[in-house]
C-alpha cells in the first residue's frame, strides 16, 4: 500500500480528558482501532485503546517506575532509557507495520502515550509515515475531579501530573503535525473541531464532517460532560491551581488559534515555575520521605526474620505492606 494512502492518528492526553471521545470520533470517520479494549461503567462508549499498545506501555512504565500521571519533570529521562532498550523499537515497529498492512488509516490512543511520543514518532518514521497528534485539553480541575470519582485518584498529585504531562506533550509534539482540541468544544459542537483536526493533520475522513446525518451525531453525547472548570471546594494548593490555569490557558491558545510569538517564552516560564514548585515540595517532604523509607526497611527486615522463624508471618507481612503502601 503506497505510503501516501496511509495515515496514523495518535490521540494524546491524560485519562478523563476526552481522548476516548476524540479517538471514537475518528473511528466513526474511517480510522481503525486495532483490537480495542471494550468500554465499562467508567467509559460506557468505549475506550478506543488498542489492547496491545496498553499492555506494552504498562510494562514499560512499570519497568521505569513511572506513573501514568507522573508529576516529576525528570522521569522523561528514565523513560528514554527504557524505550531505547534492545527489542522495544523492533516490537513496536513489527506491530505497527502489520496494522498498516491491514488498514490504511489507524488511530492509536492510550493515556500513557505521552511518555512514548518520541518512540512512536521515530518508529512511524522508520515505516515511512509521519504521524499526526491530536492533543486533548480539559481543565485540570475537571480531570482531577473525574479521576478522583472513577479512579480513586488523589487530586493534588493528579493536578501536578496533569501540568507536567501537558507541558511535556507540547514539547514532544513540536515539529509534528498536531492539533490541540478543548474537550468542551468537542462535545458542544463537534463538526468544526473534527474539521480542524482533519485540516491541521492532513487526514482523509470518511464520511466528512459535513455529512448530515453523521455517525458522530449519535456517538458524542454532550451530557457526558458533567463537570465545570473551577477550583472551588477542591483540596488543591493555590500555587498548583495557578500553575494549572496558566498551563491550560497557554495551551488553549493553540486550540483557539490565538497563540502569539511569545508562547514559547511563556511556556518556558511556566515550566521553570513548575520545576521550582516540584523541587520545593520535595525539599519540604524530604524528612518525611526518609523516615518512611527507613520504617519500610525495618518492617521488611522484621517480616523476613519472622518468615525465617515461621512465627507471626501474617502480622509481619501486613505491617510491612502498610508501611510501604
TrEMBL record:
The lineage of its organism: Bacteria, Bacillati, Actinomycetota, Actinomycetes, Propionibacteriales. This is Sulfotransferase family protein. It comes from Nocardioides fonticola.
Amino acid at each position: 500500500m503506497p505510503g501516501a494512502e496511509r495515515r496514523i492518528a495518535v490521540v494524546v492526553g491524560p485519562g478523563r480528558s476526552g481522548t476516548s471521545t476524540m479517538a471514537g470520533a475518528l473511528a466513526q470517520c474511517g480510522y481503525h482501532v486495532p483490537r480495542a479494549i471494550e468500554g465499562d461503567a467508567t467509559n460506557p462508549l468505549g475506550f478506543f485503546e488498542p489492547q496491545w499498545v496498553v499492555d506494552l506501555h504498562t510494562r514499560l512504565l512499570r519497568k521505569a517506575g513511572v506513573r501514568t500521571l507522573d508529576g516529576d519533570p525528570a522521569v522523561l529521562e528514565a523513560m528514554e532509557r527504557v524505550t531505547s532498550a534492545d527489542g522495544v523499537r523492533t516490537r513496536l515497529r513489527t506491530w505497527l507495520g502489520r496494522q498498516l498492512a491491514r488498514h490504511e488509516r489507524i488511530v492509536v490512543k492510550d493515556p500513557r502515550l505521552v511518555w512514548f511520543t518520541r518512540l512512536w514518532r521515530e518508529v512511524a518514521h522508520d515505516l515511512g509515515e509521519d504521524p499526526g497528534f491530536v492533543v486533548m485539553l480539559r481543565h485540570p480541575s475537571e480531570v482531577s475531579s473525574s479521576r478522583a470519582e472513577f479512579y480513586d485518584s488523589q487530586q493534588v498529585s493528579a493536578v501536578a501530573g496533569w501540568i507536567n504531562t501537558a507541558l511535556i506533550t507540547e514539547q514532544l509534539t513540536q515539529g509534528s503535525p498536531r492539533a490541540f482540541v478543548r474537550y468542551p468544544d468537542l462535545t458542544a459542537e463537534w463538526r468544526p473541531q473534527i474539521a480542524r483536526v482533519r485540516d491541521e493533520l492532513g487526514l482523509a475522513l470518511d464520511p466528512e464532517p459535513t455529512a448530515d446525518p453523521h455517525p458522530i451525531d449519535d456517538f458524542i453525547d454532550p451530557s457526558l460532560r458533567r463537570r465545570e472548570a473551577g477550583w472551588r471546594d477542591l483540596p488543591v494548593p493555590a500555587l498548583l491551581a495557578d500553575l494549572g490555569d496558566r498551563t491550560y490557558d497557554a495551551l488553549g491558545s493553540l486550540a483557539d488559534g490565538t497563540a502569539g510569538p511569545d508562547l514559547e517564552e511563556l511556556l518556558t516560564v511556566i515550566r521553570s515555575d513548575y520545576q521550582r514548585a516540584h523541587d520545593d515540595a520535595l525539599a519540604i517532604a524530604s524528612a518525611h520521605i526518609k523516615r518512611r523509607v527507613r520504617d519500610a526497611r525495618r518492617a521488611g527486615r522484621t517480616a523476613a526474620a519472622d518468615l525465617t522463624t515461621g512465627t507471626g508471618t501474617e502480622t509481619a507481612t501486613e505491617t510491612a505492606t502498610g508501611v510501604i503502601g
